[in-house]
Each structure stands twice: as structure tokens, then as C-alpha cells.
């Protein structure tokens, strides 16, 4: 019995010693990935995509139906106001004009003849009234026929550049319900704008005059500075998603930007010059439970926590504050020990979040403090995973 007792007690004692050593010296404890608390500027932006368009463009159509007989301009043609840019086959309208002119001359002569007769008393005044009405009707028909004939010649309404031509010679255009589109003329390509679609959850943060910037795929690495020109109040709903069109200025003195280019827009709606910043990845980190990882239990006594009521809005946003949780890596003891902290956060730029003081106007963290961003097994010595050469498929 004595031997059996010894054989049972010795393993229990060894197990207890092993657990104590692991707790004291951090044997087999996990390795933490950390990031330091930084101090510097933080800029909150809204990202969106849009399309470059001329500030002023005019769609040129026609009010008459017919076949395109002549095109005098093409894409990228410089035009002046009043310049002839196209002609429609005028034969039908010329015939209508000739007929209206003949009717007008006949009605005019009849009216003039009746005026002479009524002066001599040969006919009544009612006959003159009838010929006068026919004369005025013929004049109106003549003017209408003359206008239709003149409309067969298409003139440029403004000075500019032809950015679109929608017709070809020999094509028939019909102006039954609305004027068909023949050309689009941009008045000044040096002044353009980006029409960006902003989600309804973000549009309330914007105001006219805010700083913005955008990039285009045609010029990688080049950032175009701009400002918010207008926030249109007309909503656009696509598949139950409501967006609003925001106009962004786009100066184009070298004419490198072309209409229709896709622009990636960033609008600055808030900015802090010098604040404490905590990485967002640290805010997303969740410590495994004590049963799964031999880490120290959170210590919330003393100055290691901030007891505040959570305000509405969370950590991100514009001027909103909230209570978030991070894990501070305490390196002052025999082993590194994670400590849970509750912090008050402000605006975010997507990568970092502003750290605000607590109710006592004190900061629970300082520059250089290490916050945990990830965890990996202490037995793994391979370091971060290698980047794959090929694209990730999932």
C-alpha cells in the first residue's frame, strides 16, 4: 500500500510543479502579435467612385425628321457657335416651302384685289374679311414651312469640342416625340467634375467646400486635389440602396482627364492634427477563454480600466464616441501578461482610431504601449505566413 501511495502522489506533485512553473515562467504560453500606440494626425474620409464629366455640355438634336445628308464635324472637332455641323436632306421641306409660298402669294393678291374692289363699292366688306383671313393663314403656313426648311441645317449652339457623335451619313432620324441626339458638345474640357454616388449613411457628414481628392486608373500614383461643389438632394434608389450624387471639382488644365473616366474619390470630413491612435486591428482582437489559453485573468483594478457609460455610435464615425476593449501586453513582470482595458474612442480613418481621455481627463494608454493584435502558438517558429506568388482564389 505504501508503494501504491507513493506512485500515486509523485505524479500529482510533478504535475502541480509543472503547472506552477508554466504559470510563473510562461512555459508554453502563446506568442502575441502586438502594435504600439502612436501619436500623430488622423484623417477621417469617405471613399466612393464616380464618373468624370464636363461641367457644361450641350446635347444637339433636330426638330425635323429626315435622312442625314452631310456631317461637317466628327469626334474631337473644335466648333464655334453658329457653325454648320450637319445637314438633313431638305428636298421634302423645300417642296413644302414652295407650296406654302405659292399659296401665300395667291392669298395676298386676292386680298389686295378685294381691297381695291371694296373701295369702289363693287363688293361688300365681308368679302374682304374672308380674303384677309386666308392671307394671314397663308402667311403663317409660309413661316412654318420656312422654319422647317431652316431646321434641316444643324448649327452648333455653343463653342466647344464634340465629345460624341451619334449619327452617320444616310441615317434617318425621327423627331416625332422628342428631338433625337445627334451630337454632344462639351463647352470647356479644362473644367470637369466628378459625379460620385455617396451612400445615404455618409451623405449627412458632407458639406459644400470640403477638401477631396481622386485618382483615375489611367494615371496611377497621381492624386488630383479637388473640393465638394454640390450635394444633390435627389435620391437614387437601386435595389433598395439609396445614394445621392455629389459633385467634385476636377481642374483639367492639361486636358489629360477625359469624359467618362472612373474616379476613385476620397472626401475629408474630419481631421485631427495630434492625437493618440490605437490600431483598429487591436480593437477587433478577442482573447481566447482561460480554458483554451493559459493567460492571466483580466485585471480591472487601479488605473487599468476606464469605467464609462457607453455612448451611442460606437468607435468610428464623425465626432461619435464609444467604449471599446483592447488588451495591453504588460512586460514588467517575470513574463508578459495581457491585461484587458476598456478605452474611450473617437473618430477613425479605417486603420487607426482616436483614443480619448477618460472621465478624469486621463489616458489609460500612452505612446509606445503595446496592444495585442493577434495570437499564435509559442511553439511556432515559422513567423508570419509567406506571401503566395499567385492570386488568392478564396
UniProtKB/TrEMBL annotation:
Location of the Multidrug resistance protein MdtA-like barrel-sandwich hybrid domain: 57-181
PANTHER family linked to this entry: MULTIDRUG RESISTANCE PROTEIN MDTA (PTHR30469), SLR1207 PROTEIN (PTHR30469:SF33)
Organism: Polynucleobacter wuianus
Region (Disordered) location: 292-313, 375-394
InterPro entries in alphabetical order: Beta-barrel_RND_2, MdtA-like_BSH, RND_pump_MFP
The protein's name in its UniProt record: Uncharacterized protein
GO molecular function list: efflux transmembrane transporter activity
Family: Belongs to the membrane fusion protein (MFP) (TC 8.A.1) family.
Superkingdom, taxonomy of origin: Bacteria
Amino acid at each position: 500500500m505504501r508503494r501504491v501511495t507513493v506512485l500515486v502522489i509523485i505524479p500529482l506533485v510533478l504535475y502541480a510543479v509543472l503547472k506552477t512553473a508554466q504559470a510563473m515562467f510562461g512555459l508554453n504560453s502563446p506568442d502575441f502579435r502586438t502594435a504600439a500606440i502612436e501619436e500623430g494626425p488622423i484623417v477621417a474620409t469617405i471613399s466612393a467612385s464616380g464618373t468624370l464629366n464636363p461641367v457644361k455640355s450641350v446635347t444637339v438634336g433636330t426638330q425635323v425628321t429626315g435622312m442625314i445628308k452631310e456631317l461637317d464635324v466628327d469626334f474631337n472637332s473644335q466648333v464655334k457657335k453658329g457653325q454648320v455641323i450637319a445637314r438633313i436632306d431638305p428636298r421634302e421641306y423645300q417642296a413644302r416651302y414652295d407650296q406654302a409660298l405659292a399659296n401665300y402669294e395667291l392669298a395676298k393678291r386676292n386680298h389686295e384685289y378685294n381691297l381695291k374692289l371694296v373701295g369702289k363699292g363693287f363688293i361688300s366688306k365681308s368679302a374682304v374679311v374672308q380674303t384677309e383671313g386666308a392671307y394671314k393663314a397663308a402667311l403663317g403656313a409660309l413661316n412654318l414651312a420656312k422654319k422647317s426648311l431652316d431646321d434641316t441645317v444643324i448649327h452648333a449652339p455653343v463653342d466647344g469640342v464634340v465629345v460624341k457623335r451619334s449619327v452617320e451619313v444616310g441615317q434617318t432620324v425621327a423627331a416625332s416625340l422628342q428631338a433625337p441626339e445627334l451630337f454632344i458638345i462639351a463647352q470647356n474640357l479644362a473644367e470637369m467634375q466628378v459625379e460620385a454616388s455617396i451612400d445615404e449613411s455618409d451623405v449627412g457628414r458632407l458639406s459644400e467646400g470640403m477638401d477631396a481628392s481622386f485618382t483615375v486608373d489611367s494615371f496611377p500614383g497621381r492624386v488630383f486635389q479637388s473640393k465638394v461643389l454640390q450635394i444633390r438632394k435627389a435620391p437614387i434608389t437601386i435595389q433598395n440602396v439609396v445614394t445621392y450624387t455629389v459633385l467634385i471639382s476636377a481642374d483639367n488644365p492639361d486636358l489629360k482627364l477625359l469624359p467618362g473616366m472612373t474616379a476613385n474619390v476620397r472626401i475629408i470630413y474630419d481631421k485631427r492634427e495630434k492625437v493618440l491612435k490605437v490600431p483598429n486591428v487591436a480593437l477587433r482582437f478577442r482573447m481566447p477563454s482561460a480554458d483554451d489559453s493559459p493567460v492571466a485573468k483580466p485585471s480591472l483594478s487601479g488605473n487599468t480600466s476606464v469605467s464609462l457609460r457607453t455612448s451611442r455610435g460606437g468607435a468610428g464615425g464623425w465626432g461619435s464616441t464609444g467604449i471599446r476593449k483592447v488588451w495591453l501586453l504588460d512586460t514588467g513582470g517575470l513574463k508578459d501578461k495581457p491585461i484587458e482595458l476598456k478605452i474611450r474612442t473617437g473618430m477613425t480613418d479605417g486603420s487607426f482610431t482616436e483614443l480619448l481621455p477618460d472621465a478624469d481627463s486621463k489616458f489609460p494608454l500612452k505612446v509606445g504601449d503595446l496592444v495585442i493584435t493577434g495570437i499564435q502558438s509559442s511553439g511556432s517558429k515559422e513567423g508570419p505566413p509567406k506571401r503566395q506568388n499567385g492570386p488568392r482564389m478564396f
